[in-house]
Design a protein that fits this description.
Chain lengths: 288, 313, 253
């Protein structure tokens, strides 16, 4: 019994880690661009499939394939932002939101058309199971995912606090117009945010593809959970989102010890419904 | 393939969705409530009408309830149940800001689907209910019935249109518009904004419930996999094509959208190609949404200016 | 006494935006509220009209305690406010803006809306006549079928006052009626308010345009840093040292 809890806790941390990568980008875009980008989740699918392309069809090792996927997806995300979202910024966040729904549809259609209905998996060594006390406790894949998530969070933290870029971002996040007046190139920052968010989404997609099957709904299935993590941490609050993602991940995977497993995503949604009723601003106060 | 039958089917489908869009337009176009989980009320209506009318389950059935009531009870119970559900959802959520409201309504839609899939004692789970009875089915032969059903849908659509339109043109409808435009101003005029929002939300949900109850009679099937976000997005897209805040537009936009989608079925040449058409349809839907919002955000029929002569009549 | 405030306070975190303000507005008077930027004038309005929760003190209107009532409740008592930034109902016509305003209309209940009664029709007719009259006075009759978003900001501000009047208020709280309004419109607004005052309406007006306030007010209150620092007739205020100091000393945020 204890072993189940421990194992599921590990799954939860893994889920939380992947969610963190996906949700941070979503949150940053919300903060800087001001709207909920429903199509963000599709970038996970795109990222996973591009990695499949390089890894399964072009026989590159998964690490290289992932890096290529991150870079390519980052630019895809940027292209979409510049061509589809930027021109209509003046229409307001609601129009942007609905447009992002259209973008999600379009991306889903393209991915489905190109990739076909077959379920894919990566060409990668079967992960080793790490045993504790004779029970398989965690796999090497999962350890890698957790490490990547932690590194990514640390990296972001360092960028935000130690670099000029990070300071500029925090200024923009806090007061967009004031930042612009103070000479921060908001267009360039916007570009970096889109690149980073899309790249991280791709990474999340690839990692997700390691622990679940890769099909065209990979990303779309996550969109509400991503939004849940973002809201839990406080819409637009970067550090809050990191914690929110972890909490949601753990809640989902520990929750299914008690509830039927098909309710897993519903747990995340249930949490968010409760949070919104009790404290809509999320569990964190403060700026970021 | 008989063109007439095909058209009858498309008209039935479009008509049912048009009813749903009218309800969506009341919430979104008229009152400014962005409900991304509209499918939930569609589903509540659908399942209510089914559970009220199917015969009592046998001893081996997974589900527990079937009341065997006449079909018209189902059609009346559906919007009522949907409105009650909307009341429960709206009570804590209508006061939230737009972004939060969007997410929470979306979440409600999906959670409901999970509940429908899992709580077999009520809904028979993933299997759902099949071979549902259809209104007046016995009175017609199988081919003629298609035409009858289309006619029935049109009649209900017209009635719904008149109902919703009447509401929108009344002082109540005007108050809803003022809630959409500026809640603070609305409050400063002495209007209880929360109450207007709730009423709009409930009426819109009731209309969705009616549409849902018709839909399951159309396809004679009620399963959770039907009640996905695509239903909400169909209403959303139809409303946008036709023109937000505009009842004629809601109907027109729905017919345009559904006809366009259904006509693509003609392009399915062989089974091998069939698989590839569906994603293209999704793609086309997305492109349509993106393009219209950018170049024609008011939709095909602009929101009509209520001219002075019409007021006070 | 139409409106009475006793020790009204409002805090934002540690900041005392409104600090124990007590004031009175007499019936049928025009009372002005002036003060440097950031003095807390609009916050005071917001608290009194229920748009912000009050942190201390009480408000009485027509002798009754309205402290803590929700904004729509206070408006229904007859205490109606306008907003500093042009608050028109944009995607509605000018005439619609006025027609939506009267309180407790017969057609505003759902069932009544569906079953149009004779009373409802007559009420709408009456409201329409009143609305057209107001539009005439405001010189906006020609634009009655225009989208409000197509009006100039001066026209919108005039419209806003007219609209609030449709509610038959006992007292109007105007938050900077001259803000963002061109001089031509300022004159029209001044004339309009003077006429309304003749008809017996009570006004409480926040305004930065000092010449306007001085020329129209019976009594003027002055606020600075959340506190009331002076009260008097325009002449008295003009000469009041504290007031002069507050404005010169710079009450900028």
């Amino acid at each position: 019994m204890l072993i189940d809890i421990a194992q599921n806790a590990v799954y939860g941390i893994v889920s939380g880690g992947i969610l963190l990568l996906a949700a941070i980008g979503f949150s940053m875009v919300y903060r800087i661009e001001g709207f909920l980008n429903i199509s963000h989740a599709e970038l996970l699918t795109v990222g996973a499939y591009i990695a499949v392309l390089f890894n399964v069809f072009l026989h590159l090792n998964l690490v290289l394939a992932s890096i290529l996927s991150i870079i390519i997806t980052a630019f895809i995300g940027l292209l979409i932002a510049k061509k589809l979202f930027s021109p209509i910024r003046k229409f307001g966040p609601l129009i942007l939101l609905i447009t992002s729904v259209g973008v999600a549809f379009a991306m889903h259609g393209i991915t489905e058309f190109v990739a076909g209905p077959n379920i894919r998996t990566y060409n990668v060594k079967i992960p080793m199971a790490i045993k504790i006390g004779g029970y398989p406790f965690v796999s090497s894949n999962e350890i890698i995912i957790i490490v990547i998530a932690i590194c990514s969070a640390l990296f972001l933290h360092l960028v935000l606090t130690r670099t000029k870029l990070g300071t500029a971002f925090r200024a923009m996040a806090s007061n967009f117009d004031l930042a612009r007046v103070k000479g921060i190139d908001t267009d360039r920052m916007s570009t970096y945010v889109w690149l980073y968010a899309s790249g991280m989404a791709a990474l999340a997609g690839v990692l997700l593809g390691l622990v679940t099957r890769i099909d065209t709904d990979l990303g779309w299935d996550q969109i509400l959970i991503i939004m849940s993590a973002t809201i839990l941490g406080g819409l637009g609050k970067i550090y809050g989102v990191m914690v929110g993602a972890l909490v949601i991940g753990l809640a989902m995977d520990l929750g299914i010890l008690v509830l039927p497993s098909s309710y897993r995503p519903a747990i995340a949604l249930g949490i968010i419904i409760v949070i919104l009723l009790v404290k809509p601003s999320g569990i964190f106060g403060g700026e970021y | 393939m008989d063109i007439g039958l095909f058209l009858a089917g498309v008209i039935s489908l479009a008509g049912i969705y048009a009813i749903s869009t009218l309800g969506y337009n009341l919430q979104f176009g008229q009152t400014g409530l962005v409900n991304l989980g509209y499918v939930a009320y569609f589903a509540v209506g659908a399942y209510t009408s089914v559970i009220l009318t199917i015969p009592h389950p046998g001893p081996h059935a997974a589900y527990m309830f079937g009341f065997g009531l006449p079909m018209w009870v189902g059609f009346i119970g559906a919007p009522i149940a949907a409105a009650i559900f909307a009341y429960l959802v709206g009570l804590p959520t209508l006061r939230l800001g737009i972004d939060y409201f969007v997410v929470v309504t979306f979440a409600v839609g999906e959670v409901l689907r999970y509940v429908l899939s899992n709580e077999a004692w009520l809904t028979n789970g993933l299997t759902g209910f099949h071979s549902l009875a259809q209104p007046f089915r016995e009175s017609f032969g199988p081919l003629v019935y298609e035409y009858f059903f289309a006619g029935l849908v049109i009649i209900i659509l017209v009635a719904t249109y008149l109902f919703v339109n009447r509401i929108c043109r009344s002082p109540f409808g005007r108050a809803l518009k003022s809630v959409r435009e500026n809640e603070s101003v609305c409050l400063s005029l002495g209007k209880k904004v929360s109450s207007y929002k709730m009423k709009s939300f409930m009426i819109g949900a009731a209309v969705a419930g009616l549409a849902g109850s018709l839909y399951v009679r159309f396809i004679t099937l009620a399963r959770p996999e039907i009640f996905i976000p695509a239903v909400t997005f169909t209403a959303l897209l139809s409303m946008i094509i036709g023109g937000k805040g505009n009842n004629k537009g809601a109907v027109l936009g729905t017919f345009i959208f559904i006809f366009a989608v259904e006509l693509t079925r003609f392009f399915q040449v062989s089974a091998a190609y069939a698989i590839r058409i569906s994603p293209l349809r999704t793609l086309a839907t997305g492109i349509m949404l993106i393009v219209i919002l950018r170049y024609l955000p008011q939709g095909i029929i602009k929101e009509a200016r209520v001219k002075g002569e019409e007021l006070g009549r | 006494m139409m409106l009475q405030m006793r020790n009204v306070s409002k805090n934002f975190g540690g900041l005392k935006a409104v600090d124990r303000c007590s004031l009175e507005v007499e019936e049928r008077s025009i009372t002005g509220l002036i003060g440097p930027n950031g003095a807390g004038k609009t916050t005071l309005f917001n608290v009194v009209t229920g748009f912000l929760p009050i942190d201390g003190g009480g408000v009485h209107f027509k002798g009754e305690d309205i402290t803590g009532l929700p904004p729509y409740g206070i408006a229904m008592e007859g205490l109606v406010r306008t907003f500093q930034t042009a608050a028109g109902l944009m995607r509605m016509t000018v005439l619609e803006n006025l027609m939506v305003a009267p309180q407790n209309q017969e057609g505003e209940g759902v069932l009544r809306a569906i079953f149009k009664t004779k009373n409802q029709k007559e009420e709408q007719k009456r409201n329409k006549e009143k609305a057209l009259q107001i539009l005439n006075t405001l010189d906006l009759y020609e634009k009655r079928d225009e989208w409000v978003e197509n009006l100039s900001s001066g026209e919108i501000k005039l419209l806003e006052v007219g609209r609030q009047l449709m509610t038959n208020p006992r007292m109007l709280l105007l938050d900077e009626p001259m803000f963002g309004v061109s001089p031509g419109f300022q004159f029209r607004m001044l004339e309009y308010l003077r006429n309304l005052r003749k008809k017996g309406l009570t006004f409480f007006i926040i305004e930065h345009n000092l010449s306007f306030v001085m020329s129209i007010s019976d009594i003027i209150y002055v606020m600075d840093f959340g506190q009331l620092i002076a009260r008097g007739t325009p002449e008295e205020i003009r000469k009041d040292e504290k007031v002069i100091a507050a404005y010169l000393g710079g009450g900028e945020e």
